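Workshop exercise sheet. Pairs work together: one partner reads the sequence aloud, the other fills in the structure field after running the prediction. Swap roles for the next sheet.
Pair: D.N. / O.F.
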Amino acid sequence: MVKKYIENNRGKVFYWINEEFAGTKDKGAIMFTHGLTADHTLFDKQTEYLQDEMCVITWDMPLHGENRPYKGFSFKNAAADMNQILETEGIEKAVMAGQSAGGYCAQAFALFYPEKTAGFISIDSTPFGLKYYKKSELFWTDHYDAIARWYPYEFYCKLSAKSACTTEEARLSFYQALVRLGKKGMLEAAKALYRDFTKYPEVDFKCPVLLFLGEKDKVGYVKKYNEMWEKETGYPLVVIPGAGHNSNFDGYEFFNRKVIEFMTTQSMRAD
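Structure field:
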């Protein structure tokens, strides 16, 4: 995986790619976006396994990892950054995979660039569209940064890693990402992301969709929202055995196999 960056009026945006497959239509391309307070290392188990099979892109969502400082965050702007990365690499279409809040970036991309979205993979994320959410549930996301501010940051990091993951390896990886982000970065990112995600309509996907959910995901109402999402749309929901909220890391062997199956269908290829 080679580290590269694009640049625009919002800042420098770093990403990682296995260049040898960039722009090839026969292998397909997939772009992974991590969730709130994580970084691109959330997908280390995917890059290790998938980079010899297809074009793989990971990146730090704006306001996370190395993509700081960043001006004017919105999921629409993040989608524009994703499009700029694809254009830079000569990639016509890609499967967009997002974990938790990273699923909002992927949905925003599908919303604004449907012709470039070969598929959508949700990983313990939730849908755009206010019909899925109660006002009482949105209260906690609207005030997340205000509540999190009162926690000692070391405690917050340990609690978040324990809550999001079921395996020690996944917990350590997420904990380290949280420490790198720092409390100021965490509060800035949480405020920006949670204030923006309710502004977008539900996406009418024109591509194949696959929903993943960790069997032991107990973060917020993620389990309930995914069950509603499946019932409302008919999108297939795959439960990853024994995994928590960071299910692609906890259950990476199962997850990687399912992604390969999804990517090897003809519909994943660029036209």
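Discussion prompt: Residues 2-268 form a domain with the Rossmann fold fold (CATH 3.40.50.1820). What would you look at next?
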